[in-house]
Every structure is written in structure tokens, then in C-alpha cells.
């Protein structure tokens, strides 16, 4: 056996083990059938309605159909179930597209993954979830991609800032969680953030803490500079800040009895030097900043399975929107980052340019219509002005007639 064929065999064996699986996929390409796959929560009676549409502009009217939020200032809560899966020893990839075609001011654009035991009809904002991922916009201050994991019963937010897209086009959001406890966030199939789960979330207490037994010695001198002991204040330094104006003269008509004793106004002393400060020199006793020694944190225990969830079974849209119109589409949950990238290319990648083209041409038409309207308005106004001039002429005539009569 050649080295090459052995290598090829090793690769194919590896790829059998790393079998690519799609746990969930939703493209909304079969009309109303999505209603049998998505369950609207009944926890509240006034949740906003999701409708199926490709929106005002799109790349492909069928393929770009997705769930759109259709009512302003509402909570939305719908979810879809898939066969329960664990991500043990495998990557977990969550991907979907979001299009804020309404030019969103404030609202969520994220998904939540839930454990398989979620009661979908009772799903609500406080339902325990496994992770929350996707864009969240509120005013100019909040434009971020949330990546929140539930770890040992508590939700932990990522401690990095990931900016989301805030335009009106469709964007692809991807989260990859790896069994080596690393992660990657992609936006439009490009990496925007990555790192270690342990470092970028505070799931675990810190590895090291300041030694509680260590204390800065009393004689530790942290002052970098000191007053120069040889610098002495000059004797002529202390003069008053303000002095009586030497040029002022008592007015001739000043009456001491009536006006009181005359005093010249005060002016700034040109010799005034301000507060005296000695020159600064390097402190010969300076020891540098004292660094608190660290010790291993007795409360810290490494967890090689931070990434791991035993039973993932429901994907949900559980969010609030002020201005509705967001379209969610192209949901994919898989163990294969490469496959997700391919699917992203085939879906978002294929329709993004035609989508932009349609929007551009709509805007061009709007612009033409506005221009035509403005021209019409201007012409109408000019006609009106002419009519008015005619009327004024007639009035003058009557006036002159009247004069004639006088
Ligand atoms: C996706 O598309 C990008 C840009 O065209 C390309 O570089 C990349 O290789 C594609 N990925 C896959 C997995 O096909």
C-alpha cells in the first residue's frame, strides 16, 4: 500500500466518523405547510402574527419567502421541533437569515434553541433556553449580535461586542460551537468573531485570583516623581494677585462726605506668579507599581464540556418588535460548518444581489415618481400665478374706472 492510498483511507475513515448531519432545516418553500411545523405559543393572548412572505423586494419570490413579523409593538413567540440531538463530540452550527426590510428602529432578530422538553404552547420570554443567537437592535445605542448560553442554569452573555447589520437587506448569521470549546460567529459567511468559550463568557470563576494573604508592604514607594528638595521658593515670589490700579485717579467731583472714601479699582498684578511649586525629580526610592501576586483560584474547576448540551430539540423565535416587518428564513442546524457555508452560499449568497437590484430599481422608480410629481406641482402653481395676475389686472381697471367717475 502506498503512503498516498493509506492517507486517503485514513481521510475516508475520518469522514465516516464525522458524518454530516442536518438536524433541522426550514426554507418555507411549501406554502402554508409551515403552519404544521411551527407552533405559536399560547402563553399570552396577544402575540403578534407571523406571515409568510418574501417581502417588498427580494431575489427570488419563492425562495425568499420566510416568516415576517406583521404587527407593530408586539411580542412574537413561535417555535419548531426537531428530533432531539446532543452536540457531544461534534460541532454545532446554527444558521439563519434576517431581513429588517422595515428599516427597524427597535426589535429582536434572534433565535433561541431549547431543550427537547420545552412545552411549545407555553413558550415565553422566561422559558429556559440553551442558547440565544442573532441580531438585536434598539435605537442607535444597541446594534449587536447576541450570543448567550445557558450554563448550569444561568444565562451568560458574551463579553465581546459583535455589531450586527442594521440595513434593510437579508443577512446570514451563523454560530459554530466546537467540541474543543471554541466558537465562531459568521456574518454573511465571513468570520466576525471567534475564540474560546471559557475566555469570552464568564461561565467559570477566574482561574487565578489575587492572593488574599499578600499585602503591599508599608514602605513600598509607588511615587514615580517627588518634589526636588533643593528647589526653594524665591523670596520675591509672593506678591498679591490683584493691586489697586496705579493709573486710577480720584475723580474731580468726588465728595468724600457724600461718596465715602475714594478707593482705586483693583487690577491684576503684572508681577503675580501664581502658586509656587517645586520642580519634580525622579524618586530615588521608587520601586515601581506594586503588583498583587496571584494564586490559583480554589473555586475554579476546569470544565472540558462547556460546549455540550445533552438534548437540543426546539428552535424558537421569541422576541419583541416595535416596528414589524422582519423576515426570518433559511434556518439550518447541523454538525457540519462546511455544509452550512455551502447552504449559505446557495441561499443567501444566490439571492442577495438580485434582492439589492430589485430594491435599487424600486428606489429609482420612487425617485422618478417624486420628480414627476414635483414637476406637476410646479406647473400647476405657475398656472395659478398667471390666473392671479389676470385678476389683479381686472381690479386695477375697475379702480381707474371708479376714479374716472369721480
Ligand atoms: C462560498 O462562497 C464564497 C464566495 O463566493 C467562496 O469563497 C467559498 O468557498 C464558498 N464556500 C463553499 C463551502 O462553497
UniProtKB/TrEMBL annotation:
Residue numbers binding Ca(2+): 27, 63, 65, 329
Entry-linked PROSITE patterns: CALRETICULIN_1, CALRETICULIN_2, CALRETICULIN_REPEAT
Localization: Cell surface; Cytoplasm, Cytosol; Cytoplasmic vesicle, Secretory vesicle, Cortical granule; Endoplasmic reticulum lumen
Acidic residues biased stretches: 218-230, 382-398
Record InterPro entries: Calret/calnex, Calret/calnex_CS, Calreticulin, Calreticulin/calnexin_P_dom_sf, ConA-like_dom_sf
Signal peptide: 1-18
Record's keyword annotation contains Chaperone: yes
Disulfide bonds: 106-138
Gene Ontology CC: cell surface; cortical granule; cytosol; endoplasmic reticulum membrane; sarcoplasmic reticulum lumen
Compositional bias of kind Basic and acidic residues: 208-217, 352-381
Annotated GO MF terms: calcium ion binding; carbohydrate binding; unfolded protein binding
Annotated coiled-coil segments of the chain: none
Keywords associated with the record: Acetylation, Calcium, Chaperone, Cytoplasm, Cytoplasmic vesicle, Disulfide bond, Endoplasmic reticulum, Extracellular matrix, Lectin, Metal-binding, Repeat, Sarcoplasmic reticulum, Secreted, Signal, Zinc
Domain of life: Eukaryota
Xref: Pfam families: Calreticulin
Principal place of residence: other
Self-association and partners: Monomer.
Name of this chain's protein: Calreticulin
Amino acid at each position: 500500500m502506498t503512503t498516498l492510498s493509506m492517507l486517503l483511507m485514513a481521510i475516508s475513515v475520518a469522514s465516516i466518523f464525522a458524518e454530516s448531519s442536518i438536524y433541522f432545516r426550514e426554507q418555507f418553500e411549501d406554502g402554508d405547510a409551515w403552519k404544521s411545523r411551527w407552533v405559536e405559543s399560547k402563553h399570552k393572548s396577544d402575540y403578534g402574527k407571523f406571515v409568510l412572505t418574501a417581502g417588498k423586494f427580494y431575489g427570488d419570490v419563492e425562495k425568499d419567502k420566510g416568516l415576517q413579523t406583521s404587527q407593530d409593538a408586539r411580542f412574537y413567540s413561535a417555535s419548531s421541533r426537531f428530533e432531539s440531538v446532543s452536540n457531544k463530540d461534534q460541532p454545532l452550527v446554527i444558521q439563519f437569515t434576517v431581513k429588517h426590510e422595515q428599516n427597524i428602529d427597535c426589535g429582536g432578530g434572534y433565535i433561541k434553541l431549547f431543550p427537547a422538553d420545552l412545552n411549545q404552547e407555553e413558550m415565553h420570554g422566561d422559558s429556559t433556553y440553551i442558547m440565544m443567537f442573532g441580531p438585536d437592535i434598539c435605537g442607535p445605542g444597541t446594534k449587536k449580535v447576541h450570543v448567550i448560553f445557558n450554563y448550569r442554569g444561568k444565562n451568560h452573555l458574551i463579553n465581546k461586542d459583535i455589531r450586527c447589520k442594521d440595513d434593510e437587506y437579508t443577512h446570514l448569521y451563523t454560530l459554530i460551537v466546537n467540541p474543543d470549546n471554541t466558537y465562531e460567529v459568521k456574518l454573511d459567511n465571513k468570520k466576525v468573531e471567534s475564540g474560546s468559550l471559557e475566555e469570552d463568557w464568564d461561565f467559570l470563576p477566574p482561574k487565578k485570583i489575587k492572593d488574599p494573604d499578600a499585602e503591599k508592604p508599608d514602605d513600598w514607594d509607588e511615587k514615580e516623581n517627588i518634589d526636588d528638595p533643593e528647589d526653594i521658593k524665591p523670596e520675591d515670589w509672593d506678591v498679591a494677585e490683584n493691586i489697586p490700579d496705579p493709573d486710577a485717579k480720584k475723580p474731580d467731583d468726588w465728595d468724600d462726605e457724600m461718596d465715602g472714601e475714594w478707593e482705586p479699582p483693583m487690577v491684576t498684578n503684572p508681577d503675580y506668579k501664581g502658586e509656587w511649586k517645586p520642580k519634580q525629580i525622579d524618586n530615588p526610592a521608587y520601586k515601581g507599581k506594586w503588583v498583587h501576586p496571584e494564586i490559583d483560584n480554589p473555586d475554579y474547576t476546569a470544565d472540558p464540556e462547556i460546549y455540550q448540551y445533552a438534548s437540543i430539540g426546539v428552535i424558537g423565535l421569541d422576541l419583541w418588535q416595535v416596528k414589524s416587518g422582519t423576515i426570518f428564513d433559511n434556518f439550518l442546524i447541523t454538525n457540519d460548518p462546511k455544509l452550512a457555508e455551502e447552504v449559505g452560499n446557495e441561499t443567501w449568497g444566490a439571492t442577495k444581489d438580485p434582492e439589492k437590484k430589485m430594491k435599487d430599481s424600486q428606489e429609482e422608480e420612487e425617485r422618478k415618481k417624486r420628480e414627476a410629481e414635483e414637476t406637476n406641482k410646479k406647473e400647476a402653481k405657475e398656472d395659478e400665478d398667471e390666473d392671479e395676475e389676470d385678476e389683479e389686472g381686472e381690479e386695477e381697471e375697475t379702480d381707474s374706472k371708479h376714479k374716472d367717475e369721480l
